[in-house]
Specification:
This protein is an alpha/beta fold. The chain has a domain at about 75-245: NAD(P)-binding Rossmann-like Domain (Rossmann fold, 3-Layer(aba) Sandwich), CATH 3.40.50. Helix content is about 45%, strand content about 15%. It has helices spanning about 15-25, 35-45, 60-70, 95-120, 150-170, 190-195, 200-205, 215-225; strands at about 5-10, 30-35, 50-55, 80, 130-135, 175-180, 235-240, 245, 250. The strands form two sheets. Strands 3-2-1-4-5-6-7 form a seven-stranded parallel β-sheet, sandwiched between helices. A two-stranded antiparallel ribbon has the order 8-9. Helix 1 (about 15-25) packs across helix 8 (about 215-225). It is globular, with a radius of gyration of 18 Å. The mean pLDDT is about 95. The structure holds NADP nicotinamide-adenine-dinucleotide phosphate. NADP nicotinamide-adenine-dinucleotide phosphate binds near residues 84, 187 and 193. NADP nicotinamide-adenine-dinucleotide phosphate binds next to helix 1, helix 4 and helix 6. Pfam families: adh_short.
Amino acid sequence: MTKRVVVTGASSGIGQATTRRLVAEGWQVVALARREDRLKALATQLGGACSYQVCDITDEESTQAAVDAILAAGPVKALVNCSGAARGKDPVASASLDDWRQMYELNVLGTLRITQKLLPALKDTAANQGGGTVLIISSTAGIEPYEGGAGYCASKSAERIMARVLRLEQIGQPLRVIDIAPGMVQTEEFSLKRFGGDRSKAASVYQGVPSPLTADDVADCAAWALAQPDRVDIDQIVVRPRAEGSYTKVFRQS
Ligand SMILES: NC(=O)c1ccc[n+]([C@@H]2O[C@H](COP(=O)([O-])OP(=O)(O)OC[C@H]3O[C@@H](n4cnc5c(N)ncnc54)[C@H](OP(=O)(O)O)[C@@H]3O)[C@@H](O)[C@H]2O)c1
């Protein structure tokens, strides 16, 4: 039976790399994000193994419509939650409430919303032999908070806790819950969006770091975890570039 997976955040970065990788491994992938032009181009490149759904996971109606359309087309064995963002890097004392709100709406509530809606289908063993998997791409920011990162770190910590508690609550059910927490990953848009399009600020994140992780490195981890037999639940993977001991201990070449 062909395995079908929904990948959120598939229009760029880690989600796009994960989509490509899972298609290469024989999955049918539903690529989900808001930007249709990018999803369409990806699906065209990948051929019949990739379809797409335009969806804003912070919006109830949009997410319900996407989930309805996905399930009408067939069963879903896995959900890979890659949609997410950081906004700003300001101290708690002066951080923008709007930045925090956007991160909570997307990283925490958006991930929760689509996970809740797909959960019954993921656990439907009549349609999915062996059961299903929820995978969340959280972050090492959810493990080790840093100055200026309180809003993002808190939202990523919430995602990690969501994964952990969901796993506890679903014990005995045909569901695996996997949390992958990457450190520094150099993707095209993540830091640029964090700093409101400021290219020099975005570039400074990776300045002098010999080899940050790539989106493909994280996609490898996700594909490996998903490829394990259904009885094997890879609870957590923490993956960083060799040059990064922690967010505040990064080797940089001058
Ligand atoms: N880059 C890093 O250093 C790093 C490290 C650790 C963890 N992470 C986490 O990994 C995930 C992916 O990061 P990335 O570097 O690949 O970032 P990215 O390239 O900016 O990708 C973010 C994705 O989220 C989608 N998205 C944003 N708002 C959305 C919404 N309302 N509804 C649906 N999709 C939405 C975007 O697509 P549209 O704009 O088309 O909707 C995009 O595809 C994020 O959760 C991030 O927190 C990143």
